[in-house]
Amino acid sequence: MTGLGTIINVTSILAGSCVGMVIGKYIPEKIRLSALSGVGLVTIILGIQDALQTQNIIYPLAAITLGVVIGEILKIEDSLEKLSNHWKKRTSQEQSTFFEGFITASLIFCIGPLAILGSISDGLGKGPQELIVKAFLDGIVALTLASTLGSGVCLSAIPVGIYEGGLTLAAAIVGNFLSSSMIVEMTATGGVLIIGIGLRLLDLKDIRLASFLPSLAIAPLLVWLFAK
Question: In terms of Cα–Cα distance, which of 135, 134, 117 is closest to 126?
Answer without folding.
Answer: 117
